[in-house]
Amino acid sequence: MRSVAIVGASLAGLRAAEALRQQGFDGRVTMIGAELRQPYDRPPLSKDFLLGTVDTAGLALAEADEYDALDADWRLGVRAERLDAPGGRLLLSDGTQVRTDGVVIATGGQPRMLPGTKDVAGVHTLRTLDDAITLRAALAERPADVVVVGGGFLGAEVAASCQRLGLSVTVLEAMDIPLRNAIGPEMGAVAGQLHTDHGVRLICGQGVAEVLTRTEPGGRRVRAVRLADGRELPADLVLVAIGMRPDADWLAGSRVPVNNGVLTDAGWLTEIPTVAAVGDVARHAAGTSGRRHEHWTSASEQPAVAVANLLAGRHTAHCTCRGYFWSDQYGVRIQGAGSITATDEVRVVEGSPADRTFLASYHRDGVTVGVLSMNMAKAFNRARRTLLPSTEEEDRCPNCSSGAVGATRRGAAEPTSSTPSISA
Ligand SMILES: Cc1cc2nc3c(=O)[nH]c(=O)nc-3n(C[C@H](O)[C@H](O)[C@H](O)COP(=O)(O)OP(=O)(O)OC[C@H]3O[C@@H](n4cnc5c(N)ncnc54)[C@H](O)[C@@H]3O)c2cc1C
Questions:
Q1: What is the model's pLDDT at position 183?
Q2: Domain boundaries, the chain
Q3: What is the C-alpha separation between 389 and 401, in angstroms, rounded?
């Protein structure tokens, strides 16, 4: 293989380029990125950046000399629009083509929107730095009523930041308990309590029926949110945090299988061995989970495995990424790992949920499948290490013969938050 094109110049794309060079690849590396920016870190966008304690420069994922060492051809502000995998060609939105032997797809996703709100002023989503700059400026106008639609991690973090900024916030969650699917109903309830403890109104079990607007000279602006039960909540600013859609439409006609993400094996290779997919867009179908891992550590660790397999031209390494995640809300650090589902039995191992300081473990069919903590990093990391060897088997691809590359056992690699405590 003499050339590799990486589509998506963010965390997973950058890590793929680094892995290529670290693994001795000295051919041509082309980085294609739709955003007109070098890779930056997204987790602070909902936390430190909204609070104004981190600026744009503080989000950089690499230094200038590290970029130089990659010796890559950067095509920023350009989208890949078509992949001709057998022909080894990528067609770009600026009309140019890239000829390549291998492709790494790292295109992440786009936020899901509430229908009919695309052009409504005051309705925001948060995925990119540009989104965050716009949202931060809108919050600086001190909206009287902020409504966050979606009580998942992103919505909860933005609500916590708004509360820290002294704004009045309501979180709307369509399910009966926030984070039910991510951390189960028991711990979801504990996380939900964080909102109410900090004076943030939490309404569960209610979808949004309609976003109500008023007409202004420049167009429509949000004025309220109508719930499914008919209630109207006044809203000057709405943040829609209802998940994301993998950015894979551009692969139509490419023969790369796509189904709620780019389908891969446990080594992040697609059915076409010269095409790998990593990060939020990738969904590996081996094992029982078949899910995408929309977490920073997964996007950071998968590329080393994918690149090893891409360069070998076959599946030689498997991934032991264990879906590690963290979230910072109201001065509480939540950490989780494993393959947690809503029906697992949960046991508090140490500490107390009432104090927001605890370690819990999740069990299915007699096996420990996950761990979760609040403000108990040391105990969590210990527990996570004991968890890995058994749960590793679950996602092991039957074709894998060799060991893992870049395994999670290196430990939590997330950036240390520079956010001061954001408790009330
Ligand atoms: C606000 C926010 C806060 C978060 N906080 C946390 C956290 O606290 N903890 C945690 O574990 N995770 C967190 N995450 C998740 C984490 O940031 C993501 O898992 C990670 O960014 C995924 O990286 P990625 O490279 O796969 O995708 P992305 O970072 O989404 O990058 C994909 C890139 O591909 C580009 N692209 C898309 N289509 C094309 C195309 N056709 N051609 C060229 N380029 C294209 C996009 O423009 C984008 O730049 C957070 C995410 C967000 C948005």
A1: 96
A2: 3-110+245-312, 113-242, 325-393
A3: 16
Residue 303's pLDDT is what? 96
Q: Extract the tokens encoding 97.
A: 């083509």
Closest by CA to 99, choosing from 125, 123, 73, is: 73
Helix (H, G, I), strand (E, B) or coil at 124: strand
At 315, list the tokens.
């599946």
CA of 11 to the centre of ligand 1 (A): 7
Q: Separation of 209 CA from ligand 1 center, angstroms?
A: 29
Q: Under 8 Å CB-to-CB from 57, ≥6 apart: which residues?
A: none
Residue pointed to by tokens 């966008």:
45
pLDDT, the chain, mean: 89
Burial of 218 (0-12, 13-18, 19+ CB in 10 A): exposed
Contact residues of ligand 1, CB 6 A cut-off: 7-13, 32-35, 42-43, 45-46, 79-80, 106-109, 126-127, 154, 247, 250, 279-280, 294-297, 299, 325-327
Tell me the fold of 325-393: Enolase-like; domain 1 (3.30.390)
- Confidence grade of residue 153 (pLDDT, cut at 50, 70, 90): very high
Query: What is the architecture of the domain spanning 3-110+245-312?
Result: 3-Layer(bba) Sandwich (3.50)
Give the whole-angstrom CA distance, residue 240 versus residue 111. Answer: 8
Ligand 1 centroid distance, CA of 157 (Å): 16
* CATH class name, domain 113-242: alpha beta
- Determine the Cα–Cα distance for residues 7 and 256; give it in Å rounded to an integer: 14
Phi, then psi, of 216 in degrees rounded to 5: -120, 170
pLDDT of residue 321: 66
- Helix ranges restricted to H, 141-265: 153-164, 180-197
Residue type (1 letter), 324: Y
CA of 374 to the centre of ligand 1 (A): 24
Asked if 3-110+245-312 and 113-242 have one fold, the answer is: yes
At residue 392, the pLDDT reads 42
Per-residue pLDDT tens over the stretch 31-74: 999 999 999 999 999 999 999 999 999 999 999 999 999 999 99
